[in-house]
Amino acid sequence: MLDRRGIICDEKDKATLLLCSDCSTELSKEKIPRLALANGLFRGELPDMFADLTWVEEKICAIYCTTAHVTRLFQSSDPSQPKVFHGNTCAHDMNIVSTASVLPRTPADVTGRLSVIFVGPSKFNPKQLGTIFCVRKSKIWSFLLWLKYHNRLYANIPLDPNIVDLYPEDDIIPGFTECVV
Hints:
Layout: E1 7-9, E2 15-17, H1 21-28, H2 55-60, E3 64-75, E4 85-99, H3 107-111, E5 114-119, E6 134-135, H4 137-150, H5 161-164, E7 171-172
Parallel strand pairs: 3-5
Antiparallel strand pairs: 1-2, 3-4, 6-7
């Protein structure tokens, strides 16, 4: 599977492939690049009903966790726009891999790998954030059920409805305010 943006058609019967240096090196040695889709990394497209999953919901449903996330969040200094935020989130590789033996992950497991640095003229109010750190219990459970039946990696992972009950119907992940500095 190739990305169309990486194929340049020069002439009628000629094309050029754009490759990163890692892939080019491996292919020149007649080896499949480590991160190539041919290594089984492509698992297909998700159904449209999961197109709106938040990144936090995806982390809740992940078997493997290899990153910690640090978000810098700046609030507008204009008092007339208290709900305007900007910032960025960086994912940092960890030295360890957390492998879930049961899903979903607990709120403490997810927030334990999350830090938010808040900079603003007023006290932090998580209700002003909108959906950036929101989770939906029903979406999490639906996604896990779908994964269990459509992804062989999830087939033998037990799903615990008691853990999913720790999440709100549609609100910020529990324990989030303890992650804010």
